[in-house]
Amino acid sequence: MLLRKSILSLIFILLIGYPTMVPAAPVLNSQQDYQNLELLIDVLTLVRDNYVEEISLETLIEGAVRGIFENLDPHSSYLTADMYDDLKVEIQGQFGGIGIELAIRDRELVIVAPIEGTPACRAGILAGDQIVVINGKTTRDLDMMQAVRLLRGEVGEGVELTISRPGMAEPFEVTLVREVVQVQSVRSRLLDNNYGYLRLIQFQERSGEDVAEHLQQLHSQADGGLNGLILDLRNNPGGLLDAAVAVADLFIADGVLVSASGRQPETRQSFPAQADNTQPDYPLVVLINGGSASASEIVAGALQDHQRAVILGEQSFGKGSVQTIIPLPDRAGLRLTTAHYYTPSGRSIQALGITPDILAPQMLLSQQRVPDGMREQDLDKHLPAQAPRTQARPLSQQEEQELQDRNSDYQLQRALDLLKGYQHFNRKKDTAVDHNSLNNVSVQHRVGAPVARVFVAMDGD
Strand order in 186-190's β-sheet? Predict the structure, then answer.
């Protein structure tokens, strides 16, 4: 009887946790609930007393709790004290590992995105790659936190992965050396003609403030202000909901940015835009791809629904759920899916993702080159080229960087062409560019003007 009471006490602690954090409904609502709990206690008691090797009650309880999460979605999990500590460190933006964001699809471990500047990114790991084996251990049926624990370890030690890549007949092996991963979530630079480029790598605690600071720097660098901005959310696996709201709020002056709805009243909320510190209405292009997930999709969806930006790239990942971290005794915790989130127009992106306004699969620009044909210089007896009246100036460092981008990043180049084309077709003699016109009309008009023909023609026209 004493054992039964101790088991019951432990179960109640694990199921209820800290009632001050998440108001919990009574665990037992009927006689059937009591009978089901009696069954669990009986099984735990039988295993504890009769298993071939001695096993502690705490170990059995932890295993039972893990079993609960096996029937839930892949983003929910039980966190041991060590796992909980790791998660808190990761949210703050510094941790040891190889630099990847993971998801579980059909019981398989899939890479959502490699984090820029990390061992995984430098080794050429791609979004969509499947990790089959970690240090000789199969990943099938591992939960998320178990996989994370296998991938993390001592800095400087190697971790051996077997990777299956879509389109490749055979898996391949790669060894990555663990590093202290310090994610600088925002990078930016000024492109030619006062166009800004801002890359957001992950949504962390300070991402909203960091983006605002980088935008201020871009405005200071641009003579006369920005003519447009490219916000790059490609391979951004997401992060904190509050950070996504803060970033979207920088570009939207009023209306709902995102809403969330779950079973408990406290999970049903909407996040309105604040008019303070809203960016000017310059043209905005947002880049997304299959590695853009969660918080990235919140931002892209808000900007798309408010017709504040043109979304360009590939279909996003489709993670439309909200996870709540609930602390438990002994420094453990739960990562529990508690709500779905919705874009301002009421769209759920769960398992669907954000569809770009302009679909643009990534490719090298060399793949789009037209085969060489007959040119003037190929004709017999053609007139020689004349020397230019003025010498061409050497390219600046900024122009060299942009030239490299054009040769390696097709999506970025299309975004830049879209901004340049918009400015060209909206410029009148002695008249400033009307930055509002792109943002105050429908998506069809935004990309259906003569400007868009430059870009959509390559898709089959």
Answer: 186-190, 195-200, 228-232, 284-288, 310-313, 358-359
Instruction: Tell me: do 33 and 111 sit in the same domain.
Output: no
Number of domains in the chain: 2
Asked whether residue 136 falls in the same domain as residue 167, the answer is yes
- CB count within 10 Å of CB 373 equals 6
Nearest alpha-carbon partner for 401 in 391, 413, 389: 413
pTM, 2 dp: 0.73
Structural domain includes residue 306: no
Q: Both 58 and 100 in a single domain?
A: no
pLDDT digits (tens, 9 = 90+) for 217-237: 999 999 878 999 999 999 999
What's the per-residue H, E or C state across 212-241?
HHHHHHHHHHCCCCCCEEEEECCCCCCECH
Q: Which range of residues forms the domain containing residue 105?
A: 94-182
**Which domain CATH number covers 139?**
2.30.42.10
Q: Write out the catalytic residue numbers.
A: 294, 305, 319
Point out which residues pair with 231 in neighbouring strands.
198, 286
Closest CA to 56 of 65, 69, 47: 47
Amino acid of residue 252: I
